[in-house]
Design brief:
CATH class of the largest domain: Mainly Alpha
Radius of gyration: 22 Å
Low-confidence stretches: 12-22
Number of helices: 11
Shape: elongated
Number of strands: 0
CATH architecture of the largest domain: Orthogonal Bundle
Distance between the termini: 28 Å
Length: 231
């Protein structure tokens, strides 16, 4: 089994002090909160200026944290970038359990719900920020693409393939193209919606109408047994 991709594995924690916290030292909660601010603000700066142009000095100045503290936590700019990106992806993804909860007795309605869940995530500011950063850096850091695939596309595609095996063609002995159908749905409906967002500005109603149309179009083709039988 292939090992899971990890962008940031963290550093070994220091042993806890037995004598308690020294005078003026921040609490653990304060440290966690400041680290959260560091990761969030760093990602904003990487997006605004690009990875190469963003410096630790700029990050230090923007957040009001010393360079020494930043280096002690992450070692270098690349590690900080990966840590910030990994946290943002983990907080942003749609869990499979949420997709399963969207399932109804009607397959088309189920697919519409799944598409709307993902499209809402992708079109939100956090989603657009992640996609813009990832698209810029994946060629220099291919592990970013691997992490996005493993955390976002792979679980959703796996769930969709299982859903299609059960329900795409009622009465059929099997659905041999279930995995292909799952990939087609993600590309055609979900990622297609993201491209529309980048290329044009439409009302929410018009955008949702496009999602419905693409879902119906997908199902019309995916239910075609002649297409499924082709080598």
């Amino acid at each position: 089994m292939k090992a899971a991709t990890i962008l940031f594995s963290g550093k070994a924690e220091k042993p806890q002090r037995t004598a308690g916290r020294g005078p003026g030292r921040p609490t653990r909660e304060q440290i966690i909160q400041r680290n959260q601010e560091l990761l969030d603000r760093s990602l904003d700066l990487f997006l605004q200026s690009g990875f190469e142009a963003t410096t630790i000095d700029a990050i230090s100045s923007a957040i009001g944290m010393s360079r020494r503290t930043i280096y002690s936590r992450y070692g270098d700019k690349t590690t900080l970038f990966k840590a910030a990106l990994q946290q943002a992806i983990d907080e942003w993804i749609v869990p499979v359990a949420q997709l399963q909860a969207a399932e109804t007795g009607d397959l088309q309605e189920t697919l519409l719900r799944i598409a709307r869940l993902w499209v809402a995530k992708l079109r939100a500011p956090a989603g657009m920020r992640l996609l813009r950063i990832a698209n810029t850096e994946i060629f220099r850091m291919p592990e970013i693409a691997a992490y996005l695939w493993e955390r976002m596309a792979e679980p959703t595609s796996g769930y969709l393939a299982e859903l299609f095996r059960r329900r795409l063609r009622p009465g059929a002995a099997e659905v041999p193209d279930a995995t292909d159908a799952a990939g087609a749905f993600l590309l055609m409906v979900v990622l297609g919606a993201v491209q529309s967002t980048a290329w044009e500005s439409v009302s929410h109603e018009a955008f949702d109408r496009q999602i419905e149309y693409r879902t119906r179009l997908f199902l019309a083709g995916a239910r075609d047994t002649a297409l499924a039988a082709e080598p």
